[in-house]
Task: inverse folding
């Protein structure tokens, strides 16, 4: 399997305008939204809004460390949160997510 992970140092000196042009010319571009397109992790914001932020953070840490399978941690987080469409919309209304700096320029 090809390892696509890279460090920020590998991008030092890379021509950002050329990269922006390549993205502008692409037919489609996919992004991880949380902490990439927006500055926060949506599940963390929603969990805090629902009053279970620390418990969800603990489950996330367990999954990130490999102690708990991702699928199991996700199921446990959703079970704790019990999000509804109404609670999600209220969270977004009260705590709107912010775009990452420079993102709006990407689509120009």
Result:
């Amino acid at each position: 399997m090809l390892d696509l992970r890279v460090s920020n140092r590998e991008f030092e000196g890379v021509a950002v305008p050329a990269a922006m042009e390549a993205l502008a010319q692409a037919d489609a571009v996919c992004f991880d939204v949380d902490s990439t397109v927006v500055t926060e992790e949506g599940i963390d914001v929603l969990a805090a809004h629902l009053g279970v932020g620390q418990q969800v953070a603990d489950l996330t840490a367990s999954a990130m460390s490999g102690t708990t399978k991702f699928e199991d941690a996700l199921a446990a987080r959703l079970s704790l949160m019990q999000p509804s469409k109404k609670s999600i919309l209220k969270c977004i209304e009260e705590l709107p997510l912010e775009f990452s700096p420079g993102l709006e320029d990407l689509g120009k």
